[in-house]
Specification:
The chain is mainly α and 160 residues long. The chain has helices at 2-55, 65-90, 92-97, 103-117, 127-159; strands at residues 59-61, 122-124. The chain has one domain. The protein contains 5 helices and 2 strands, in the order αβαααβα. It has a two-stranded antiparallel sheet.
């Protein structure tokens, strides 16, 4: 009887060790996945910024454009992680009434804060056009990120 208990105990210990090893592997993959996700976000938003800047004369990025677009992207990423959840929480009733269309206004606020933080390196000269820039940025970022880049990264992570 004592042998059965010790055998059962050892089996449980082995299962716990195996489970903990699996969790460590999952953690390493999730960290890698998060890094890919951040790099993908930075790349797609920088590319989107550069594309949209070509369409609107009232949206100006200073030279070197790639550098300042990347800096703006980093600022937007931080604002999206910190400020956007607060704005969405506080404007939830308005979002419900407008069926989510107020989300574009939140995007405009994030872009305007980025504009203010970057001084003259990024400039949205017209608030009315900023609304359309926000919509176009959202659409282009969706196409670049979700339709093109995410499947590529997902395939790369599955091959590992």
């Amino acid at each position: 009887m004592a042998n059965k208990k010790t055998t059962k105990k050892k089996q449980i210990e082995k299962e716990v060790v195996i489970e903990s090893k699996k969790e460590k592997k999952i953690t390493k993959k999730s960290v890698k996945h998060k890094i890919y996700e951040i790099l993908m976000y930075l790349f797609s938003y920088t590319l989107t910024f550069l594309i949209v800047e070509r369409f609107f004369k009232t949206f100006v990025i200073a030279e070197p454009k790639i550098l300042y677009a990347l800096i703006a992207t980093v600022i937007i990423y931080i604002l999206n992680q910190v400020v956007r959840p607060l704005l969405v929480t506080f404007t939830m009733p308005i979002m419900g009434i407008t069926f989510g269309l107020f989300y574009v206004v939140i995007n405009c606020v994030i872009l305007k804060i980025t504009d203010l933080l970057m001084f003259s390196k990024l400039d949205f000269q017209n608030l009315f056009i900023l609304f359309f820039i926000s919509i176009l940025l959202s659409i282009l970022r969706f196409v670049i990120e979700d339709v093109i880049l995410k499947p590529i990264i997902k395939r790369a992570l599955n091959n590992e």
